[in-house]
């Protein structure tokens, strides 16, 4: 182009050609810078939406705790620690980003404003913010790496193999090609590239924070019945003749017949069958005896153990002349429940005839010889009086104090479960139900309304029991999204229910 003798016109053409090539190169560089800027803004928006979604789960946990649900106290403590760890790491990254933008004189352009390309391509300011000399990081960067590392180490505790692999991949700070992670990511990089890398790190932190908190809430929903109702209950005769065989029934209340575990009683291990174990025993000696041991059962977090201790008395014989002791037992549970009819049986040792039963509150009606139906009234306890006459004509009367409890908390369900997975196309076709799992008394609920929360949007209330009402709101779901159905309203005859457990839908 420059060889040989050229005319002035040819020289001008050649010069213009060189200028054109330089402008093309400049435009390419600007397009790359503008692309980085767009990616950074997109990541910032995604991070903000994820943070708002996380707030919903934190608020749900705190609401349950403030409603008096003691099972959420430990969950709330864990969620608070996760939130603090994530916020410390996020704030440290924000501090470095602020230094970077301030020293590069960069602000996000408003609509109609021209992008400051000089600040976007500035590499000197990146080296100044990140490195003291050579590859030694500045104090602000050292603090950022330490706090991000603290966050990742905290969420790795107790995580399963799949979660560990994901976190180790997202937060891989290892050296590569004999260079540190910091040097590879930031040394001599344009300012906008460094800023985008930091924003991506923030996005990963908010995403994993949400994953861990959602797992806490989902595990609590799966384990909620265990916290509320799995209390050791031992049923055995109160009086046993010496040498007489008798059975002891041991279980977890009247709720879950799917539990897996075993009973430890006197050195023996008896597996649970349908959530309980029947142990054959023989009355030995006379006097007060104990049935004591422990029950171990499986939960999503591993095995748990509860201790039990029940007493019975071995007597030489039971004869009609005994002016003895009255006994009372609830046929279904050790307490009576408000809102349902409780079947009761009563007997007095030494009395072969009929006995009578009265209650300090509520109503008692007969259902046959020495059997009654009881409907509780107000208050937290009731005193039953069992009366009868011995063969000698002596009047026997004894009082028993029982607790009155409301029926257990109902659980929201879809397809019989409170945590379900399904394709996005199936979500709006689901019907929401409410039930008290494995409750011994017949209670049927009718769902009248609910709220739905999907990622990136505010919760919305709907009436009825079908998610078809929320079909428009549920549009746009994608694989990996989680939909929360909560504040479920339901009606049941004679039973008042509040704070029905929510349902979590994992979109496949």
Can you summarize this structure?
With about 500 residues, this protein is an alpha+beta fold. Helix content is about 35%, strand content about 30%. It has a five-stranded mixed beta sheet with strand order 4-10-9-6-7, with no helix packed on it. The chain has a five-stranded mixed beta sheet with strand order 20-25-24-22-23. The protein has a four-stranded antiparallel beta sheet with strand order 11-13-16-15, with no helix packed on it.
Could you give a short account of the major beta sheet? 5 strands, mixed
Q: SS-based structural class?
A: alpha+beta
Shape verdict: elongated
Could you give the order of strands across the largest sheet? Answer: 4-10-9-6-7
Rg is 35 Å
Are there runs of 5+ residues with pLDDT below 50, and where?
20-28, 225-229, 316-324
Number of strands: 25
Query: Helicity, in percent?
Result: 25-40%
Quaternary state of this entry equals single chain
Describe this protein's structure:
A hairpin with a 4-residue loop joins strand 15 (363-366) and strand 16. The protein has 9 helices and 25 strands. It has 4 domains: 30-227; 230-314, Immunoglobulin-like (Sandwich); 318-406, Cadherins (Immunoglobulin-like, Sandwich), CATH 2.60.40.60; 411-507, no CATH class. It is of the alpha+beta class.
């Amino acid at each position: 182009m420059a060889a040989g003798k050229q005319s002035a016109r040819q020289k001008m053409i050649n010069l213009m050609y060189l200028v054109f090539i330089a402008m093309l190169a400049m435009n390419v560089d600007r397009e790359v810078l503008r692309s980085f800027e767009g990616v950074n803004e997109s990541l910032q928006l995604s991070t903000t939406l994820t943070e708002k979604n996380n707030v919903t789960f934190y608020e749900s946990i705190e609401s349950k705790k403030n409603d008096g649900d003691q099972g959420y106290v430990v969950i709330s403590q864990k969620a608070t620690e996760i939130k603090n760890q994530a916020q410390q790491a996020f704030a440290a990254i924000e501090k470095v980003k602020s230094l970077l933008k301030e020293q590069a004189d960069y602000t996000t352009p408003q609509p109609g404003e021209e992008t400051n390309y000089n600040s976007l391509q500035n590499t000197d300011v990146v080296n100044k913010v990140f490195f003291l000399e050579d590859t030694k990081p500045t104090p602000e960067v050292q603090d950022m790496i330490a706090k991000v590392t603290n966050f990742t180490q905290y969420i790795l505790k107790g995580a399963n193999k799949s979660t560990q692999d994901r976190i180790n991949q997202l937060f891989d700070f290892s050296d590569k090609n004999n260079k540190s992670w910091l040097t590879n990511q930031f040394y001599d990089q344009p300012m906008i590239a460094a800023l985008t890398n930091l924003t991506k790190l923030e996005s990963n932190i908010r995403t994993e924070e949400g994953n861990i908190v959602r797992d806490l809430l989902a595990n609590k929903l799966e384990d909620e019945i265990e916290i509320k109702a799995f209390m050791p209950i031992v049923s055995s005769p109160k009086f046993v003749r010496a040498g007489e065989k008798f059975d002891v029934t041991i279980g977890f209340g009247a709720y879950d017949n799917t539990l897996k575990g075993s009973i430890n009683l006197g050195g023996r291990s008896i597996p649970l069958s349908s959530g309980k174990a029947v142990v054959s025993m023989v009355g030995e000696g006379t006097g007060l005896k104990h049935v004591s041991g422990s029950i171990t059962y499986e939960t999503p977090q591993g095995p748990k153990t509860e201790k039990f201790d029940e007493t019975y008395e071995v007597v030489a014989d039971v004869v009609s002349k005994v002016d003895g002791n009255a006994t009372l037992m609830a046929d279904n549970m050790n307490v009576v429940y408000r809102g349902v009819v409780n079947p009761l049986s009563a007997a007095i040792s030494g009395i072969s005839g009929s006995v009578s039963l009265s209650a300090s509150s509520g109503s008692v009606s007969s259902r046959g010889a020495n059997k009654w139906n009881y409907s509780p009234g107000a208050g937290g306890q009731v005193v039953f009086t069992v009366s009868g006459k011995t063969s000698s004509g002596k009047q026997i009367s004894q009082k028993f104090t029982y607790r009155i409890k409301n029926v257990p908390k109902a659980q929201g369900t879809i397809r019989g479960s409170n945590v379900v997975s399904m394709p996005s196309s199936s979500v709006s076709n689901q019907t929401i139900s409410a039930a008290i799992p494995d409750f011994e008394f017949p209670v049927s609920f009718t769902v009248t309304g609910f709220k739905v929360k999907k990622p990136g949007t505010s919760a919305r209330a709907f009436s009825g029991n079908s998610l078809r009402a929320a079909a428009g709101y549920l549009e746009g779901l994608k694989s990996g999204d989680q939909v929360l159905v909560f504040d479920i309203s339901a009606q049941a005859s004679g039973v008042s229910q509040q704070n029905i457990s929510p349902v979590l839908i994992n979109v496949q």
